[in-house]
Amino acid sequence: MNYYIDRKRFGIAELFSKMHPIFSSSNDMNAKDTVRLMCEQSFRTRAKIASGINNAIRRLTQDSTVNVDEYLNDDIKNLAENPVGADNLNDLLPFMKWLEEIHRVNSLEVERSQYSLNDAANHMERAAGELLISCSGNMMWQNISLVQENDGLLLNLTERFWGKASLFFPNVATAFEGTFPLVGILFSMEAEHTDSGFEFSFVVNVEFGTDDMELRALQDRNWVRLTFKCDCPEIRLSLFDYGRCLMDFGKCGHGFIEDWCSEAISKELSLGSHSMSEKENELLPLAKILRITYQMADVDFSGNGEHSQSEIGIPSKILDLLGNRYKFGLYETLFAESGQKELYDILSNAVDAFGEEDIDSVASELWNFAIKLRTAEREDTVREFYRKLIELMINCTSDFNGVSRIYGTYREAEEKMRLIIEPKLTEYGFTGTYPHYRRRRGKKGEYISVLTSNVNKRTVNGIMTYYFSISAAVKRLERKGKRKSAQYFTAGIPFEDTTAEDCAFVYDRRTKYSQLGGEYDNESAEINIDIFDGISDENKITDTANDLIKYVEVAADSFNGKAMPRWYKKNRRMASVRYKNEISAGSVFIKLLPLGMYITALIMGTYVVCNRFFDVSGYVPVADARTALVFSLSVGIGLTFFITVVRMIALRRHIWRY
Known about the structure:
Shape: globular
Number of strands: 18
Helix content: 40-55%
Radius of gyration: 30 Å
Largest sheet: 8 strands, antiparallel
Distance between the termini: 62 Å
Strand order of the largest sheet: 4-7-6-5-1-2-3-8
Number of helices: 23
Structural class: alpha+beta
C-alpha cells in the first residue's frame, strides 16, 4: 500500500510550530511577509525568536539520536554553523521558505492519506467508517493497544468519559514478528480498500518516557510500523452513562451543563452521529451553541455587543447548525416553560440572520445570547431552565451498555471519601447524602458539596487516583408558609434541592461561593484505588483523603465570618486567580458607583433645601452652588472608592470570591 505521511517531516514541522505560532501551518502569510513581521518586533521578541530557531536547528543537526539530514538543505546547515541573531532576522528568508515547503508537503500528504481513508470508510459499515475517519483526524498522539483475538486484531482506543470504542479487524494476514499486545502512542493510521478487502498501516511509538512527541517523531528508536490485510472492520462500543456520572461527581448547574456539552461533542466527534442516541442528537445542536456561548462569555470584549464573526471566531460547524430551523424549534417549549423566552428569541434572530447570509449579525446575536445568559446566571434567574435541561441531558444517557474500567473504581473511592467526610459534616449540623450536604441557620442556607475531578489518573502499576475538592456556599432563603408548615426556598427552588454548585455563578451580596482544594489550590485530596489484585503495599501510594477535612474546617469557620487561616492563604500563592474578571476592583467600583451618585444627589438636595429656607452662605461663606456640587461629588466618589478598597481587602481575607 502507499504510505503518505512522513513521520520525521511532521516532527520537524511540529518542533518549530511549538516554538511560536508564526511558524505553524496555520500562518497564512508567505515567507517574505513572515520575515518582515519578525523584523518589526521588539528587540526582546526578536532575540527570543532567534534563540528558539538556533536551538531547534542545533537539535536537528547535532543531536545524535536524530537523523534528518535528507530533509535539511544547504541554507539550513549554514544556519547551524552561523547562528542567526536578533539584529539579522532578515537572513531567515531561506529558512522560512524551507519551512513553508515542509508545511506544504505535509498538507498534501495529509490530504492524500485522508482521501484514501475516506474511500476505505465508505466501504465499511457506517459506524465503523465514522470511527475510522475520527481516528485519522483526532487520535494522533493518543494511547492505543492492539490485541490479537480470534485470528484478528482488536484496536482499543483511549477510554473517554462517555465510553470507549474499539475496531476489530477480522481474518488478519500480517508478517509482524513483534509481541502482542502492542501498546503505545499512535502517530498515524493509513488505510486502503482493495478488491480483496482492506489494508491498514499503523505507526506506533512504544516508548514509555517523558520526551515531547515532536522529539520522538524525529528519532528512529522505539517505533513500530504494523501493516496487515483483513476483512471489513467491525466497531465495538461500550457506552457509559456520563450524565449520571457527572451528577455523582457533584456537578450541578453551569458546571454540569458545560461538562456534559463537552462530552457529547467529543462523543459525536469520535463516533459520528450514527452512534448517538436519538435524544442526544436532538440536544446536540443546543449543546454546541451553549459550549461556544460559555467560551464567548468568558472573553472580555468591550463595546456595545457589536462583534463580527472574525472577532469572536465562530467555527463554521456552529454556523451550519443555525441553518436547521426545525431543530431549534424543538427548544422553544424548553425555553418558554422555564421563563427564558427572551433567550430563545435571540437564538431565533441568529437563525434568521443566518438565513439571510448576514454572518456578522449572527455573531452579534450569539454574543448577545452569551451576555444575556451570563447575566441570568448572576441574577439567579436561569436555574429553572438549567434544571429542566439537566433532566433532559441525564435522560439522554440513561440507556448504556458498558461498565467503565476506569470509573468503575469510583464507587470504592466514593465510599471511602463518604466515610471520612460525612461524620465531620454531621458534627457541624449538616444533613444530606453524598456528595451534597446542607444546613439552615435562620434565614441563611449553608451548603457544602464534595466534587470529584473529571481528570483522574491511572498509573502503569494499576493505581487509579481520584482528586477531590469541596465547594462551599451561602444563600439567602425565602420563607413560605407559617409556623411548622413553613418551607424554605432559594430562587424558587426548595432548600433541600439546592446545592453549593447551584450558587457557583450567582453574583449578589446575599450569595457567597468558593471552591477549596483542587483547581485553585496547590494541593487536593487524593484517593488511590488498586485496580488489579496483588499489588504489594510497597507499591501503593499513600492517600491524602483526610486533607479534605482541613478544607471542611476552613469552610465551617468562613460560615461564621472568620478569615482564612494563614496556612491556607499561603497555599493560594496567587490569590487573584480565585476571582473572575467580573470581580475585579474596577467592576466592583462601577457596581457601587450608583450608590455614590445617590449620596451625591442627597447632599446636593440637602444643600438646595437648606439654601431655600436659610441663608447658608451667611453661615458658610464658601458654600456656593459650585462648591457644593464639587463637595458632593467628591464625597460620593470618595466614599465609593473607599468601599471598593474595603471590599477588595475583605475578598483577599476570606475564602469567598466576592
